[in-house]
């Protein structure tokens, strides 16, 4: 029986805890967070869970919470990644991170890339030495979307260009621009966007370089724009070994959150530099965050929003992989379908975001506790062997998270 320690009790950590509570291979779950009230509320509804208060800025506090763990799931913001990694090594546990890289470097544009490389080069051998596996980037994007991108490679002899395309079109009557951490979402909105072009990684302006798509299940065309995400960096670093020599990779994003954040970005309201506003020094970012509601994570909170009314319950997650097969130009489209807000709540008492991101992450946790992984070291989710990708989607299908493949000659 496995002991799992979940650090962070936001929407993602909460979803993983609920699902693992139902796993027969899990004997004990420790839900840890600095917010004791959130921990207590979560564990009160679980059978196998105990609560713990910890300070993620303090590695020793994390180590104390994680004693005896077979798996540590990191559902905290990016800044805590290094500490949780170090704690996992100290207690000799497997490690899963919803995020993809940690802040090892102060350089805004290049630090993320160097941080990711540092994890592979430094932490990879450390986890291999203790015979454990660490996987980074294990939510919906990165995570589920990376597995879907890997799966597209089965249909190509060589790959030229990859697009990861995400539309989060869920809109409620209530003001709720984000269904996960607003701090994380808006921080990503203001950061330079990464692209991989002609074999090199570039930083581009966010909200730029639009593309328009309308797939057959969408009732209108949607404009997708640059957004700061890990996937182009990961695919670029792993292009030769895992992506059939891919030369170009892009992440394009659309939805209610993007529509809300774009004018704020253009007005300079997502900045962290303090400004003198009528004699008070304030960060514009903090003012915006102060006026955005927290995402709902408990059943009664979600029910209230649904009862008030849903304006739109749409979205898409699509991989477009362009390349060659048997000398022909081919487009592989992998479409990922999952329940929206109303259906996710009916099925599991969750939002659609929790269903896809939290459960997308839970599927990696399920593979850990079921001993489906036979590798050691540190990898990102786009580096899973194809047989593990198949296992992932086998489990996903049980949750009505389905991938459909369309192959087109172009």
From TrEMBL:
Protein's name in the database: Saccharopine dehydrogenase NADP-binding domain-containing protein
Pfam families: Sacchrp_dh_NADP
Sequence ranges assigned to domain Saccharopine dehydrogenase NADP binding in this UniProt record: 4-100
Source superkingdom: Bacteria
UniProt cross-references to InterPro entries, sorted A to Z: NAD(P)-bd_dom_sf, Sacchrp_dh_NADP-bd
